[in-house]
Fold each of these.
Amino acid sequence: MGFKNFCFKKSLWVFHFGGASCNNCDIEILDCLTPRHDLERFGILLVGSIRHADVLLVNGAINKRDKERLLEIYNQAPKPILVVAIGACGCTGGYFTESYTFAGPVDKIIPVNAYVPGCPPKPEAIIAGIVKLVENS
Amino acid sequence: MAINVFYFLVFPGLLFTAIAGAFLSWFDRKITARVQFRKGPPVFQPFYDFFKLLLVKETILPKYGSPVIFLLAPVFAVFGAVMAGVFILLPLLNITTGFRGDLIVIFYLLTIPSFSYIIGALASGNPLAAVGGSREMKLIMSYELTFLLVIAGIIMKCGQHFDLSSIIQVQQAGSPFIGSISGVLLFIVAIFCIQAKLALVPFDMPEAEAEITEGIFIEYSGAAYALIKLAKYIMFFILPAFLVALFMNGFRIEGTGILWAVLKIFAVVLIMTLIRNTNPRVKIKQAIRFFAIWMNLVAIVAIIIIAFGY
């Protein structure tokens, strides 16, 4: 189990699900992969297909249409998969909590392993969140 | 019999090519990172990726598709890559001399991985995988003739020898083929052919991750995807090794010859990596035109130059 867990921690491939987002969190997530922060140092890659993913990043408020898509994406993912909620909207709903299209924060829909609050969170905060996720998984 | 199993599974075969190819794949990623002013992944990153996919992740079978063929395709890909690797590396390392005409066998074995990717993609029942499979098929049709012309040029240049060990011996007795005008032309064509065979960036439309999200590999997960990664690592080592055998007088496994052998492989991989980092992805139409007109033209010019003896 030790070797398996070590390999899993060393090569986390990330799939990015953007809900009804204002695009600020998306840009901050992409900033993590740029030369200044370079997440590939830790083996983290952005993949295009959920079948290859180990981490599901969810940002933005989840509205009623997004809820079905998020559930479908989560069910299509190969287990084990870690879920990270990014930004105030992903963690709690933020500004959109009272909206009539809001379908609950991410952890009401799928189990969440880590929360990175902020509007938007800095890339350093996202990296710190992923480091904590890796240490505790 | 036992020695053949050893050849296939351990020394020039599966284990050796997989480790060497994983290391070269790290080299490729590290050079890419340095080109983009990043730090890049650690040395054992390809091993972590492979063992994570093999041991940890779940393998999901497609609902609308053929699960048996879907799972067999990566096995065929690894088998073809390892067989080609054994046939290339045995003469290259001076273990045995191969047989007459093994160049043709190598040429056909090298296409097995690409064909198995197509079969696996079409068996997955995913429309994006079907798009990727059709693009891979068009790519094969465009580069195979060019690659065959390169091999024909090499055969003409070394004096009608159809086996790899004679080609290496002719070069080691005289001068390496890359030292002549025709050799340089053929080498340029061959570099673009293996770039397309490995689906690296100017010709990566079968697995274009931005538009069709990994294309032919979209439905693979877990152990099946690990086998595909393994086949890719092996191809990443044996195709540069094949070019070294055809153009740069092979390996001499003694003294400083080992250092030279490693440097030759690194040089070929470095050229491929720099091409992939400085070019955008072309459309499939442009790729077919590039190979069918320009690269074939260059190869034919090289063959004509060889006929005049340069």
Amino acid sequence: MPVLGDPRAPEPTVFDKSRPGRRAAALPPLDVPAVDPADALADVELATEPPLLPELGELDLVRHFTRLSQRNHGIDIGFYPLGSCSMKYNPRMSEAIAGQPAFRDVHPWAPDEAVQGTLGVLAELETWLCELTGLHRATFQPAAGAHGELCGLMLFRAYHEDRGDARRTVIVPDSAHGTNPASAAMCGYDVVTVPSGPNGLVDVDALEGAVDEQTAGIMLTNPNTLGLFEVEIERMSRLMEDVGGLMYYDGANFNAICGRVRPGRMGFDVVHLNVHKTFATPHGGGGPGAGPVVVSERLAPYLPAPVLARRDDGTLFWDHDRPQSIGRLHGFHGNTLVLVRALAYLLAHGGDGLAQMAAKAVLNANYVAQGITDVLPLGYPHHQPMHEFVSTAKALKAHGVRALDVSKRLIDHGFHPPTNYFPLIVDEALMIEPTETESRETLDAFIVALRAICAEAAADPDALHAAPTTTPVGRLDEGRAGRHLVLRWEPAAGDDG
Amino acid sequence: MEFAPHTPADVEAMLAALGKDDLDELFAHIPETLRVTGTVDLPDGRTEDEVTQHLTGLAARNQAGGVCFAGGGAYDHYVPAVVPALISRGELLTSYTPYQPEVSQGMLQALFEYQTAIAELTGLPVSNASLYDGGSAVAEAVAMACAATRRSRTLLSQALDAPSRTIVRTYAHPLRRPVEERAYGADGRTPVADVPDDVAAVVLSQPNALGVIEDVRAHAAAAHAAGAKLIVKLEATSVGLLPTPGSQGADLVVGEGLPLGQGLAYGGPTFGFLGCTSDQVRRVPGRMVGETVDAHGTRGYVMTLRAREQDIRRERATSNICTNQTLCAVAGLVYLTWLGRGGLVELARTCLARARHAAERLTAVPGVSLAVEGPFYKEFALRLDVDDPGTVQRRLLEAGYLVGPVVPDGAAAGAVLVALTERRTAADVEGLAVALETTMKELV
């Protein structure tokens, strides 16, 4: 008999719980003449059997999704130091503001004069993003960071083509997020990978050898995925300038420098910001985020259309008259209500608060790194990390223990694991990003747990191999999932649904 | 206002542990010329109360609360309270991509159930765990079709909504993939015609951007005769009435998630869905969830076929998609569960009946007629006998009725779209008809 509220108790699928004829929804009664579809749509093929949607009463529906939620870890439950993801507190203030009917119940094709409030939010947000990045104009269509990357690279292409100069390659460091090369490929560019040097920074001499007249530009995140600031960024910028290449800033790590360093000042032409990271809009299990793209003056003409514009009387409108635009990336206007949340977050912090936010993110990361450096040293210890760091668990291999085992054991201690095996240039990588909203006590407890796990790796490695033991399921057979694909629920044989 | 919990003593002790004197020292290795001196030129922080007041003040400048007859991919269907209540549970709201399945079974199972629901709506066996929106989903489907056929040419129906057509062109341009359009006919339907044998994909929508129901089966046959894929952008609620496009031969079915429990939301956040035939499963963009077991044989769920994805495959990935619209997809699942199998059928029949009634009533207004005669479901295009239909739209908005968008091109160019949901009563329609009649008289 399962314990009340025990998340380990199995939960059948919503389809298993379905019973024919049951339902939660009540629709308004028809106050117009009923229509027989066979008459009204005489020449049209009609459905013979409706789709097999689940049929549940409302209480069973609520219980099902409540129980599913109990089988899921979120920031609200505990520490979530997933590197590269900035899993910080998501203020409920932002949820309440964006949930107001006056923002929520607005049709995307309502005339501009009927949506001056929403356009006002976007205009104000654009001002903030331009000031923080040191750039000129923004688009809000990209729905996520990778969508922003695709947008940025399309802007690269439009800029070069406008100069009659179709270039072929985009440079990406070997430590870059996987989205960077994937975005470049989607934009038709050949990817040239430049190596990191022994200090974990881009090997600028190698970069110098890689750039040429075919270089459309470079994609960088700074600090990089090791959490290290690319101190030679100005030299890299000059190299790109010399060959007429452009610079793309992947904003995944902007939390480290927000309010303290402007990407535009570093020479970047395009920045995407992951508002679900830096500006704490909820990650939602993998979206919705938003990836607004901010650009320099020379790339502004190519932004997706429409762009926001202001009339002489101060009213805002969507300007569709953009002859040099790359086109469109979203069917409506982007993840607008996520952007409302982002502005709420920015307004709360203010310019001064954002610089403090970045400083405390860096403080927390360095504090944890320092606390575990003797057992899980930095993969690249030559420079001080910023808002995140990458440790190596390679010393534990002597005990037959891998980074993944450390991660799984952390779960038994009540912590979400760090990012594993990324970036690829660190052996047995554990990429840890505490964020600024965690208290010193939480960080201390995490340090204690990691140290205990490292000690356990030597004394009882099988305890790590068996982890986690406190969760609804143990380690799952991912190979089997790939070999015997089961991607949907199927009715049992003989069950006619 | 900040959300960092550090007391001054915390900061001091933590800095001491690092051998630093102040927070700025943590940035000392960054070249000085790059660092912002002083503070950025932005307002100071505010309290929650002040932020809420400021943004509520902006919200008040939106003209919300009118009677919504607008369409164009966004429809005023009712969103039951269970949807926001369940997706705002912190365990779901504040989680991220389920890289660690043992602590993410809730989200993974919900996505597995979502995939099942989408497979049912599309009539295709494979669904992913969501895309950004319906428009970009069309472009992703085109990329899949090009990869599957090793061809590059795409034929778009002109009766595919204009934003989706632009997105397909935007994605295709850097890859030098030709995109052409085929005009819709006087009945508002896309003519079924021979497809050249170098075409990768034929794309249409069901019902189309004029609200008209297409003959998916005939288009599938024509595409397949040329070895091309048929992509259908589906208005999801229509399958309460119409056959699933997959059952009629479509190879890829995508669609806009907004009508499935997202509200209007000024168009976002929303989600895009994608279904495909089994042979294309390894070309699918984005996350997919599969069922498996742990060492004890307990059933569980994991992200699967990960070798398609950008973090593994980098520039050879099927797409660059990483973060997508997971929570919106779960909201869609909650909505579809609330609606249920019977509710979907009733919803579709209700929309059909209301749209028939509205079309009849509105075309009784002098100077107003149906722009095309093809069969429609919940949305139709009205030809207004005036110079500028945009003026009618604005006057109606002043009277409290939102209609539109205006059809941009083709035989019905300049016609105004009107959409009916279960929420639009006979009295709403009468009010719109009266306002329309008044407006037309003023303008003629």
